Amino acid sequence: MAHSDVTLLALNAGSSSLKLSLYRMTTSDAPELVAHIQMEEIGDAPHLVGTLASGESFIDEHPEPREIANHDSAYAKLREALDNEFGQLELAAVGHRVVHGGDQFDGPTAIDDVTRERIASLTPMAPLHQPHHLEGMDAVSRFAPQTLQVACFDNTFHLDMPQIAQLTGLPYRFFDQGIRRYGFHGLSYEYIAETLHQIAPDLARGRVVAAHLGNGASLCAMHGGKSIDTTMSFTALDGLPMGTRVGALDPGVLLYLQQEHGYDLDALQSLLYHDSGLLGLSGVDSDMHALLSSDSPRARLAVEFFVHRTAQEIARLAVSLGGLDGIVFTAGIGEHAPAVRRDIMERLSPLCSVAVDDTANLSTNPGRISTPESRVAVHVIPTDEERMIARHTYAVWQSRQPDA
């Protein structure tokens, strides 16, 4: 039996934001976006914005801070706005992006009390993200306790990486205890792998490094659309420098800060997650656009360091792949910073014969940005994590129907 016009939400909860994407489902492969709505600066200066799939705005408000004091009130306000625009919605399910599933979940999972507690137990491995995912789940539970909720994990795309890519240099017993390299941004990489297969199937079957470059940034080495290696590891701190996160760091620095500067656990966590990366290096901003526009020498230094480290890590992942056939840029910086893309490729050109087409790179809809002569094909593909959440959530919902 086919289920038509199933409606669901993809939810992404941040520390001070809540984002909902409303989808209408007819098949698991073709989610139809209806609208996107989000609340920013919850509890401080709330800003409610909603747009239709066409891009047309249907709401833009600034509620009083006391009205939107937490994720519960934010979710209620977002649902009210959606109901006002589309009529009383009967949701089949709500899907949540969850950063860390550890090795406890191998795919999208219906959320119940046990699942929630297992997700909560992973908070030390994702302290910047996990608590807010839980707040989003709790908000939905209080607003609509009977609605199916599904957790879609950002690390499951990488769970089948070769063991060599999952190991750390710690004694093997720690690997058996779950201390291993996991990797994240998996919903984004899954979408990129599928989209690349549609637009460049020969390349998709080859050796590709996907670069999810945004406020959170990582790379994924894919062969035939499968994850082979990645830059993030046990937590979302490792790898590239990010907006406010440190990226790869000699662990001896942490010991030194503890021993010589009196840093405790809370101070280290704040330093590594909130005060480092582009913000810490530049002293100006964590936003790449702001740094590119700045005439500050430290802003230029921060951008150069980001480019330098990204090119280094792409080269490292090319070793994991045994060569390189393509690069895909995605996410905020990857999609919207042509100067950063150009500089990364220029650093790689002596190693892997990659050349940028300046006209394509500067286009508002760039697509392939490497020259025809470039041995390595380079594409820009906008990511769509919410679409992947919708597909996975619909599949879980379908599996629970009586006629499944």
Topology readout:
Blueprint: E1 6-13, E2 18-25, E3 32-40, E4 47-52, E5 57-61, H1 71-86, E6 93-98, E7 109-110, H2 113-120, H3 130-143, E8 148-153, H4 163-166, H5 172-176, H6 186-199, H7 201-204, E9 207-213, E10 217-223, E11 226-230, H8 251-261, H9 265-274, H10 277-282, H11 288-293, H12 297-321, E12 326-330, H13 331-336, H14 338-352, H15 358-361, E13 377-380, H16 385-399
Parallel strand pairs: 1-6, 6-8, 9-12, 12-13
Antiparallel strand pairs: 1-2, 2-3, 3-4, 4-5, 7-8, 9-10, 10-11
For the biggest sheet, the summary is:
8 strands, mixed
Q: Can you tell me the residue ranges where pLDDT is under 50 for at least 5 consecutive residues?
A: none
Number of strands: 13
Classified by CATH, the class of the largest domain is: Alpha Beta
Number of helices, counting only DSSP H or I runs of 4 residues or more: 16
* Global geometry: globular
- The span between the termini is 8 Å
Structural class label: alpha/beta
Mean pLDDT: 94
- Which second-level CATH architecture of the largest domain applies? 2-Layer Sandwich
Strand order of the largest sheet: 5-4-3-2-1-6-8-7
Could you name the CATH topology of the largest domain? Answer: Nucleotidyltransferase, domain 5
User: CATH homologous superfamily of the largest domain?
Assistant: ATPase, nucleotide binding domain
Approximately how much helix is present in the residues? 40-55%
Percent strand equals 15-25%
Using only C-alpha atoms, the radius of gyration works out to 21 Å
Q: What's the structural domain tally?
A: 2
Order of helices and strands: EEEEEHEEHHEHHHHEEEHHHHHEHHHEH
Function: Catalyzes the formation of acetyl phosphate from acetate and ATP. Can also catalyze the reverse reaction.
Catalytic activity: acetate + ATP = acetyl phosphate + ADP
Active site: 154
Binding site for substrate: 97
